[in-house]
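User: I'll paste a sequence; please echo it back and then give the predicted structure.

Assistant: Echoing your sequence first, then the prediction.
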Amino acid sequence: MAPNYCRFHFQANVNVLAPVRRFVSDIVERLINKPEVASRVEVAVHELAENSLKYASANGARIEIEVYDVPGQMRVLVRTTNRATPEFLKTVCGLIDEMNAAQDPVAYYLKTIDRSAAIAIGSGLGLARVFAESGMRLSYDRPSDDEIAVTAEFRVPATNPPVAPPG
């Protein structure tokens, strides 16, 4: 089945994050009929979009949310893409690599909280929050030398039928 998806493109305006976060959460909840999943997606959308917009060097950021039906499961992806400085790109890639090597997401998050006390910018706390609180796996790819796409993904059992819209 084709994915349900939505895409946004922002020009460095973090003021739109709260309404977009709520909008996406509502859509995901209706597709999956699981409020706890919608809440997890909401955290990922907020943190990834905020990072993308805050550190974008040009052309803002793209945010994509996709929900796929797979046998017995729903696959949820949150992806942000933006151009950034080489230093930022190196930091993000290093943080995600470190996260994926961690055995315990909560322990990693607590370590990142401690580390963030000494680092004003680029501590990785938002990414660690997605990893620990949302239980999403993070990955990245580099579409070009000055661009990064960060993806948060998880699968949930498809046990509940979707909620019909009111009206």
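Residues 4-157 form a domain with the Heat Shock Protein 90 fold (CATH 3.30.565.10). The chain has one domain: 4-157.
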